[in-house]
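Quick review question:
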């Protein structure tokens, strides 16, 4: 069970969530964008590279240079520098993408929402070890639920919703099983991620 928890915790890390969110929005919500199928795939690849691959590479670099003790960053102090870098990087990515003509206002709201969650969890981490994993996966769940409400007449969100609900439970379980967080830290992360993402789309899209 410990191996399973480690795999889940590593694979479904917070940095993967923006890619899952944009995949859901671009490919499961009708008329979400004027982009072609190829264009949507290109945007998804760009999101994956800028919000997941590059930050993960930097975290690995921090580990190999011994800036952090381990990749799981169990100690709160190990999170300070990587989380600060990721926050600044997400702000930069959000700014640059929002200036592109193909980046719709809805996409901008989604990206700003996720960046807000990243910054919030990172700031809270300086004082308390809130669960970034719970915040990330709950944010994805919040997006899907609000998408089903706003785009009720044109979506294929049933299975993404089912998967998100299951994955939310599994990810939070894995963090608790590995003693990476207390229940209160996971709950706080869940509430933060869900409320920010759900309410942002509900109010501004």
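Suggested answer, residue by residue:
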């Amino acid at each position: 069970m410990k191996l399973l928890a480690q795999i889940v915790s590593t694979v479904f890390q917070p940095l993967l969530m923006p890619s899952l969110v944009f995949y859901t929005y671009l490919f499961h919500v009708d008329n979400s964008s004027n982009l072609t199928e190829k264009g949507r795939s290109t945007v998804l690849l760009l999101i994956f590279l800028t919000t997941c691959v590059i930050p993960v590479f930097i975290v690995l670099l921090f580990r190999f240079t011994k800036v952090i003790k381990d990749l799981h960053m169990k100690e709160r102090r190990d999170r300070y520098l990587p989380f600060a870098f990721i926050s600044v990087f997400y702000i930069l990515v959000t700014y640059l993408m929002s200036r592109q003509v193909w980046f719709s206002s809805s996409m901008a709201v989604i990206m700003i929402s996720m960046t807000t969650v990243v910054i919030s969890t990172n700031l809270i981490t300086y004082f308390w070890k809130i669960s970034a994993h719970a915040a990330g996966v709950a944010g994805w769940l919040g997006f899907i639920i609000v998408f089903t409400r706003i785009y009720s007449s044109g979506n294929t969100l049933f299975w993404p919703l089912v998967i998100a609900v299951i994955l939310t439970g599994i990810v939070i379980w894995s963090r608790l099983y590995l003693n990476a967080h207390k229940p209160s830290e996971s709950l706080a992360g869940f509430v933060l991620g869900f409320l920010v993402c759900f309410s942002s789309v509900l109010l501004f899209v």
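Why it works: Helices lie at 2-11, 17-28, 37-64, 80-98, 105-125, 132-150, 158-177, 183-204. The first helix runs from residue 2 to 11.
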